[in-house]
Design a protein that fits this description.
The structure is a single chain. The strands form four sheets. A seven-stranded mixed β-sheet has the order 2-8-7-6-5-3-4, with helices on both faces. It has a four-stranded antiparallel β-sheet with strand order 11-12-15-14, with helices on one face. It has a two-stranded parallel sheet with strand order 1-13. It is about 40% helix and about 15% strand. The radius of gyration is 22 Å and the shape is globular. α8 links the parallel β6 and β7 (about 215-220). It is α/β, with parallel strands linked by helices.
């Protein structure tokens, strides 16, 4: 099946066929689901649901095959060397927590953890907690006034030989696409373990873990047109084998007696208990959907859409965009403030005319504090949005300005 990108793609998303007037611009928080994803999960539950890896009966074997096929699809999608490197968690936050908890066990007091000022709380807070437990030192690559990383400063900071580098591939506030390849290369030469939060980037650009050359990378299903309740931690096989598990129970064990236990190999070692079976199969269907469009097409379309949106935002009086003002290394995520109009009031006014945006600090409170603002409004676009959605937003912003004037 060939999909038409842009607004025509909404015909393949049931929520839009049921809500023709909905202008959904909160895609940085979570994307809507195409029919093929919903159908794959519904088919599982209606026809052959069973637990995986445990049953020797027919439908259990069918489900296990579908489940592991999806792991293979995910591995190919990010160019992992092996499906064994794909770990299923409940979301990207859980994946990033797993990485911090497991790795930090071997850290020593005074070790440096280098992060960026763009980090989502899911990247930041686990390392704050690890820092408290192990007396680690957290340092931050600063952000320039236009929302980009200060690369020159980063190069100097990496010379201090951090134990780990943690960075987002794309900011969920500024839309900045970060220089992951360069910074990962420098960090690895300095002996650091490198962790990438790709939760925001994965729906917008091709993620190739071998090209990035990082050690660990996390993303979520629900921002990739798949179901919620599922995250992915990819890691280099040799590193994952060394890392201890952080959850214990069924499936992740090799042998158990009343006093001790030994653990299975990867990926099972990190997947205790019954996994998110339908969600994994749903993500497999979402990846099939994206592959039929191709990430090359996605990137090309969104680059044009981003350029158009940047131009349109300049037409709104008293609007201040937070982040890069040009189309270089930035995605279709736009956080902004309008003089005299609180972001939450703006979101409420827009909702009254069927436009869904986000308002708040977007789980990046320190960055908002750095910019001296408590909250922003955020409009985020994806492949089923078109220029008419931006025009609807412009209309809504002008209406909101009229209401408060």
């Amino acid at each position: 099946m060939k999909y038409k990108i842009g607004s025509a793609l909404k015909e393949d998303f049931p929520i839009f066929t049921q809500n023709r007037d909905l202008v959904f611009l909160d895609n940085a928080a979570s994307c809507q689901k195409p029919a093929v994803v919903l159908e794959a999960m519904d088919k599982l539950y209606r026809n052959f649901y069973a637990n995986v890896h445990r049953g020797s009966y027919n439908i259990a074997e069918i489900v296990t095959s579908l489940y592991e096929d999806a792991r293979e699809k995910i591995a190919r999608f990010i160019n992992a060397a092996s499906a064994r490197e794909i770990i299923f968690t409940r979301n990207a936050t859980a994946a990033l927590n797993l990485a911090a908890r497991s790795l930090s066990i071997d850290f020593r007091a005074g070790d440096i953890v280098l992060l960026t000022e763009l980090e989502h709380h899911a990247s930041l807070v686990p390392w704050q907690e690890a820092g408290h437990r192990h007396n680690l030192k957290l340092e931050f690559i600063p952000v320039t006034p236009d929302g980009r990383l200060d690369i020159n400063k980063a190069r100097q900071q990496i010379k201090s030989k951090p134990k780990v580098l943690v960075m987002t591939a794309m900011s969920n506030v500024t839309g900045t696409v970060t220089e992951v390849e360069e910074l990962v290369d420098l960090a690895k030469k300095a002996g650091a373990i490198t962790i990438i939060d790709a939760a925001q980037a994965v729906q917008h650009k091709k993620i190739d873990v071998q090209e990035i050359n990082c050690d660990l990378l996390a993303f979520s299903s629900h921002k990739l047109f798949g179901p919620s309740g599922l995250g992915i931690l990819w890691g280099r096989e040799e590193l994952l084998e060394k890392m201890p598990p952080v959850e214990y129970g069924g499936h992740m064990i090799k042998e158990v007696n009343y006093q001790t236990a030994s653990y299975a190999s990867i990926p099972d070692k990190f997947e205790a208990g019954t996994p998110p079976i339908a969600e994994v199969i749903g993500l497999g269907a979402a990846i099939d959907f994206i592959n039929q469009i191709s990430m090359t097409t996605v990137e090309s379309y969104e680059k044009e859409l981003t350029a158009y949106c940047l131009e349109q935002f300049t037409k709104i009086p008293n609007l201040k965009l937070i982040g890069p003002k040009d189309n270089k290394n930035r995605g279709a995520i736009f956080s902004f403030v309008i003089d005299g109009l609180h972001p939450h009031d703006l979101a409420t006014i827009l909702d009254s005319i069927g436009i869904a945006i986000r308002a708040g600090h977007h789980c990046v409170m320190p960055l908002h504090s750095k910019f001296g603002i408590p909250a922003t409004a955020r409009a985020s676009f994806t492949i089923y949005n078109g220029e008419e959605d931006m025009q609807a937003l412009i209309f809504g912003l002008n209406k909101a300005r009229q209401i408060i004037s």
